[in-house]
Amino acid sequence: xxxxEVSGFVCSxxxxxxxxxxxxxxxxxxxxxxxxxxxxxGGAAKKVGKLSRALRSKLLNEGEEAPVAVEWEPQxxxxxxxxxxxxxxxxxxxxxxxxxxxxKIVTRLEKLLYxxxxxxxxxxxxxxxARKEFEQTVVPWTENALVPLCxxxxxxFGWTRRRHHCRLCGAVLCNDCSRILPVQAAQKLVKPPTLxxxxxxxxxxxxRPLVIPDDILRICLxxxxxxxxxxxxxxxxxxxxxxxxxxxxRMLKLIEEADEDLPKFTALVTSIVDxxxxxxxxxxxxxxxxxxxxxxxxxxxxxxxQNLGMKKDPPPTPGAAKLQRNVRMRAADYLQAHMLxxxxxxxxxxxxxxxxxxxxxxxxxxxxxxxxxxxxRAARAAQTQPSPRxxxxxxxxxxxxxxxxxxxxxxAAAGGG
Length: 417
Fold this sequence. Notes:
single chain, 12 helices
């Protein structure tokens, strides 16, 4: 046994290797209950106990004096330099870059959802081709030949690993490193355009989202992180504003939109009265419906503000309840001043009849003016042309040509005598 080298948890009596300290203890107390005296160990258990106590005493510094705490002399600081301005500048540049990137991504996403060619009347193949061409106009796609490896995972492209393009930045990536953005989730991040044609020719046909194959958009990990950051910022912003502030902001926005449409409606009504154009009438009717809808929304939101938290326990404080009532009163005053005084449009038949009546009156006035001008021209012509009586009198006063020639020698002879 002396020539055999063992290591690990070894029994001091039978030199058996065990897997753990607990296994060693169990083996020692079960196989050697007499402390190893039967195996010639010579009281191995007592030796092990004494050795363990000595080791414990050494590790815990038992019997030794406690260490004395060292008092260090105060040290003076050397040269210092404040780098706060540099840090803030770098952070500001980084934040500005992230904000600019996020704005670009949102703008591109808005164009992809609500702009571009209308593919509803096309075949599936033609629609896919037109959609692909439009996506490349929104953001240029990186050429496939320039990217032999996936920039995220570093694996080669080939028959089993195809190339895909991010619709928001144009980068090339593989299928495993790309992400699928559902159209419904994308619509929650951007708002639809308010005016037709504001984003491109496609919005003039419809304000609904365009048909996108499979209702998904393929994006990369970086664009997904930017969209996630935008969504988190919106959630934090909503969390900071209490519900009454959110409703109040919504009401102010509706009032602002109504104030912008009121002068337009007044100008359209005046133009209808002057011209009677049916196209202007249709436009005025659309603006009036939009105004009435906004007025209705203002009334609904103001009532929500007034009743906010009234059925909860505890109810709003007296100051908050007074504020909510004042907001409702302001909205009621605004509606009374603008909605009740909103001019109503005449019927389409009345506009047509009034337009025809104005045309008849205009033609009558033009005819009367033409007759008046003819009379005036005749009067001016009569004043410039002499009358027949005056012509006869002038002819009687003029001498005859023969008489003038014979009277001349007689007058000369009389003068000579």
